[in-house]
Design brief:
- Helices cover 61% and strands 8% of the residues.
- The protein has helices spanning 9-28, 38-44, 52-59, 63-75, 97-100, 103-117, 123-148; strands at residues 50-51, 79-83, 91-95.
C-alpha cells in the first residue's frame, strides 16, 4: 500500500510530461512552433506526406484533436494540404518550406531540453530510463489493444 504522500508512477510520469511540454513550448515559441506539434513535424520531416488519419494513428491522438492541431498548423503556414491521390475523400499533409527552415534550430533546442532533463544522470541511467519508459508504454499499449480487440 502506498502512502498518500508518495506520488504514484502515473503522477510522476504526468508531472515530467507536463514539464517537458511547458519547457518545450518556451524553447520553441521563438520559432513559431509548439511542443504539441513536434510529433507531427517528426513524422513529416523527411518530405513524408500522410493523411490526418495516419498522423492521428501514428501519434496516438484522437482524430478531433489532430484536426485542431493541423488546422492551427495550416493557419500558421507550417503544413500544406493536397488532395490524396489514393482517396479523393481525404488530403495528404506535408510540411511547408517555412517549417523546414526551422527544423534544425527546433531540434537543437529540444536536444538541449533533453540534456537539461537528465542533468546529473550517467549514460547508463539515461539508457535505463529510456528502456523502462519504453516498456511502460509498450505494456500500456498492449493492454489497450487487448481491451479494444474482441478476438482477445
Amino acid at each position: 500500500m502506498t502512502s498518500r504522500t508518495t506520488p504514484s508512477l502515473a503522477q510522476l510520469i504526468n508531472r515530467a510530461s507536463r514539464a517537458f511540454a511547458r519547457d518545450g513550448d518556451i524553447a520553441l515559441k521563438p520559432l513559431g512552433l509548439r511542443y504539441a506539434q513536434v510529433p507531427v513535424i517528426a513524422l513529416l520531416h523527411d518530405g513524408e506526406e500522410l493523411t490526418q488519419k495516419e498522423l492521428a494513428e501514428a501519434t496516438g491522438m484522437e482524430q478531433p484533436s489532430m484536426a485542431q492541431l493541423l488546422a492551427r498548423m495550416d493557419r500558421d503556414g507550417l503544413v500544406r494540404r493536397t488532395p490524396n491521390p489514393r482517396d479523393a475523400r481525404s488530403q495528404t499533409i506535408a510540411l511547408t518550406s517555412a517549417t523546414d527552415t526551422r527544423l534544425t534550430d527546433a531540434h537543437d533546442r529540444l536536444a538541449a531540453l533533453d540534456r537539461r532533463a537528465v542533468a546529473g544522470f550517467t549514460a547508463a541511467e539515461i539508457d535505463t530510463l529510456k528502456h523502462l519508459l519504453t516498456r511502460v508504454g509498450d505494456n500500456l499499449d498492449r493492454r489497450r489493444d487487448a481491451a479494444t480487440d474482441p478476438a482477445q
